[in-house]
Amino acid sequence: MTQRGLLIVVEGCDRSGKSTQCDILVNSLQQKGIDTELVKFPDRTTQTGKMIDSYLQQKSELDDHAIHLLFSANRWEAMKTLSEKLNNGKTLVVDRYAFSGVAFSSAKGLDLEWCRNPDIGLLTPDIVLFLDLSIDDAEKRGGFGDERYEKRELQIKVRDQFMKLKDDSWKFIDASQSKENVEKEIWNTIDATRNLLQDNIQELQFNLWKK
Ligand code: FDM
Ligand code: MG
Mind telling me which HAMAP family this protein's record contains (predicted)? Predict the structure, then answer.
């Protein structure tokens, strides 16, 4: 029987180096002979993703609740494919997940518990890497971009909301270090987790935020 792959989620605020580090991690895992694929949320290519993309680029307006549900639907529609890949032995590195969903929407003022609801029952990550960077340091990296949420005031609130969501599966990575050192810290963390999981890797669970 093939052992299932790991579901590795990478979260963090904008400019924390998330996407760069996701690419590096996928490459490092592949080089170790581990079948690995990069997944990114939102997936802007699907129907829901196109609406999300237009909203983020400020080309359309949507009610805060409605866009929140679209982000969640964008994850749900991927779950069947992702669970099949994992069960076939593929490891997934996921750039943003439901934690971003709740952190961003609740930072805008929506109720945190309300925000969690649509994502309850998603695939449970084996590990969440949180690339931790202060907003000041994030801004020093050339400022934020032009998309809807890339503003200092909101980013500060998003970070506070992330802190309310952390649990035992979260590993904090000091993202203020050099790219190489962040890469090393992530690798050591993943390697330790892999060893830990190897002997008793659980069946894949659709268990996110279930009590
Ligand atoms: N974002 C991302 C949300 O508001 N909700 C979500 O569920 C997800 C996955 O979308 F500002 C926000 C976070 C970010 C924006 O993300 C686009 P990328 O990683 O910059 O594409
Ligand atoms: Mg962005």
Answer: Thymidylate_kinase (MF_00165)
Residue 39 lies in a domain: yes
Residue 195 maps to a domain: yes
Considering only CA atoms, which residue is closest to atom 7 of ligand 1?
A: 101
CATH code, 137? 3.40.50.300
- Pocket of ligand 1 contains residue 149 by CB under 6 Å: yes
Ligand 1 centre distance from Cα of residue 32 (Å): 30
Q: For atom 16 of ligand 1, which residue has the closest CA?
A: 42
What is the full per-residue pLDDT of the chain (211 aa) written as tens digits? Answer: 789 999 999 999 899 999 999 999 999 999 999 999 999 999 999 999 999 999 999 999 999 999 999 999 999 999 999 999 999 999 999 999 999 999 999 999 999 999 999 999 999 999 999 999 999 999 998 878 889 999 999 999 999 999 999 998 899 999 999 999 999 999 999 999 888 787 778 899 999 999 8
Q: Are strands 7-12 and 127-132 parallel, antiparallel or unpaired?
A: parallel
Task: Calculate Rg over the CA atoms of the chain.
Answer: 17
What pTM was estimated for this model as a whole? Answer: 0.97
